[in-house]
Amino acid sequence: MSACDGPPPLRTVDAMQTTPALGAFAEPATAAAHFRALLAHAADVSDVAAVLARDGDPGFVLVDTRSEDAWNQGRIPSARHLPTAVLATGAHGLDPGVPVVVHCWGPGCNGAQRAALVLAEQGFRVKELMGGFEYWAREGLPYETGTAPAVTRRDPADRLTAPLATDDCGC
Q1: Model confidence pLDDT, tens digit, residues 109-119
Q2: What's the pTM value of the predicted model, to 2 decimals?
Q3: Which of 23, 49, 124, 169 has most Cβ atoms within 10 angstroms of its Cβ?
Q4: C-alpha torsion sign, points 18, 22, 28, 30
Q5: What are the residue boundaries of the structural domains of the chain, listed by start?
């Protein structure tokens, strides 16, 4: 078979069979439980943006857990700035009856996960904003920079990694 023949045909793999490159596949019920749990703990940037764009109470508070310098560099307009160290003290003024969506810089940073753990241990219902501020900016969503008065900006969406024809990726 040459490279011109195209990819090899797909094979059916038994659910418990181990493939060299991927390892074992989970049973459907185990996979469903795993993905259900992921969806209960993570929020998509475009979904959060759509809710925040509507008038009225979004039903959650968005919390930016990054440093003061990072906050001034760029932030989501409706976010509250509460670095993880502040959240850990419990003196943050959040209402335990209101769900919280936390974010940090992006997928290479676990600051939002640490903050989510702190809040969950304090009795809050919490989700992590997938991709954090990085994915927010990549999708061309509005953000503010600087100190008061803030300047609102909106850069073009990243042509490779964000939906361009719509605000929804179609997932």
Answers
A1: 899 999 999 99
A2: 0.79
A3: 124
A4: positive
A5: 43-153
